[in-house]
């Protein structure tokens, strides 16, 4: 009976089991920034006095023009760079080095050309310990979950840009991280692929009940995906406004033509009008 | 998905152009032969192609002198290339992993680059004698540079996001080196090996020209001294021929190692891995 399930479904069942066991935690604050700032050198203030709290299972979009400190913020959460002042707290701990309970996705898929899709997906586990047969099955399931069943043995160069990002997403799933940081992951893709991947991303993240911080400079994309949108302005990088999206989930692409959606787009635009 | 490959188009181009290449070669040889036969050029300066072919047949199959010398030069060059590559790659890897070492080795490398290394030949021969060791040492000295520069460049030239990915996964320095830097550098490292092989041959030959008891350098100088120029040319062409074969082998190794540059090869490796997974463990 268990065997007959599709790999992707099996993955979701596992995630739901975990969700139930961890249900007491839902609503807990998993990411918090307190007066967080980052300076590069003497004069460049990439991020200035950021304060926010993100609850478990929330999807937050960070939107703003180039140079507003979105990527800096993401790297501070991931522990890839050091803060200048303030505090970044993830899962109740002060961030001081890269954390394995936080997974990242970049604008490029960042796949290793000499590894098959499956081997790329297995990389996070391989770095921690020896691969088991069970891990392999899990990786195959993750590829199924992102819609790449049958492509396990393709090399990155044999896949389209959209498919490469799907592999990167499957790799992120396999890190087991409950916090997902995405730095314009679909920014280099064409509009059609991007829309389709956004819909699927919402489905997958919902099913895994992960907390997500999603960086983009596309206002529509930011609103479509998020529970809350943090709007950032540049020089110095600041969180100018936080907007509650409040649109029902699951969302369909057609929602983007609705009145409520456009009101939200205007709210984001207004922030830049003021600055 | 289509797997029309660059390799296939290359082959197609070759079959198209090969007759022309052969035609040009034949015409040049004919012209050269005519110049000698008509007495425009002296046989002593530019021996006839037909004489060179006869001389090659002689040293390869009748007299068979060339084998012994070829083996000697190849042994020296390959051993030198191997040692030089080992040293070059070792220094490069140390420099990549250790910032202090990187800083202190830099002036020495520049100094070495500025020295015409072939000119060290007579010193090596004086120090190490005219046996195998001086030729190997000179070959290693001239060979080490290519692998050093290429390995260093390749290992340092890692994409920023790829490095961030490895850091975010909690990879150690060694894991990042082994699973990211080294494979990324492979195309350049392999090119460095080819450079090493080519320069090691020059090194070994020069050492033999200076002073040696055997080897192609010795053979060529002997033929020139005896003014048997067609034999000198034949000896030179033998080095070219076997050097070409070695180069082709290295190119094939390069093609197999860095398989992800070739669609056809990727496709067949994919299939193999798929079948292996399907087979009961």
Task: Describe the overall structure.
By secondary structure, chain A is an alpha/beta fold. Chain A has a domain at 25-101 and 178-274: Rossmann fold (3-Layer(aba) Sandwich), CATH 3.40.50. Chain A contains 8 helices and 10 strands. Chain A has helices at 7-21, 70-78, 117-128, 133-145, 161-174, 191-208, 219-225, 259-274, and strands spanning 29-40, 44-55, 59-63, 85-90, 93-94, 102-105, 179-183, 211-216, 228-233, 238-244. In chain A, strand 4 (85-90) and strand 5 (93-94) form a beta hairpin. In chain A, helix 7 packs across helix 8 (259-274). Chain B has 281 residues and is an all-alpha fold. Chain B has 12 helices and no strands. Helices cover 81% and strands 0% of the residues of chain B. The two termini of chain B are 30 Å apart. In chain B, helix 2 crosses helix 11, helix 3 runs antiparallel to helix 4 and helix 9 runs antiparallel to helix 11 (229-257). Chain B has helices spanning 6-37, 49-62, 65-97, 99-114, 121-128, 132-143, 145-156, 160-168, 173-210, 216-225, 229-257, 263-278.
Order of helices and strands of chain A: HEEEHEEEHHHEHEHEEH
Poorly predicted runs of chain A: none
Compressed to H and E, one letter per element, the order of chain B equals HHHHHHHHHHHH
Residue ranges of chain B: pLDDT <50 for 5 or more in a row? 1-5
The quaternary organization reads as heterodimer
Total of DSSP H or I helical runs spanning 4+ residues of chain B: 12
CATH class of the domain at 64-258 in chain B: Mainly Alpha
CATH architecture of the domain at 25-101 and 178-274 in chain A: 3-Layer(aba) Sandwich
Mind summarizing the main beta sheet of chain A? 6 strands, mixed
Based on Cα principal axes, name the global outline of chain A: globular
Q: What does the largest sheet of chain B look like?
A: none
Radius of gyration of chain A: 19 Å
- CATH-assigned homologous superfamily of the domain at 25-101 and 178-274 in chain A: P-loop containing nucleotide triphosphate hydrolases
Helix-strand makeup class of chain B: mainly alpha
Portion in beta strands of chain A: 15-25%
Radius of gyration of chain B: 24 Å
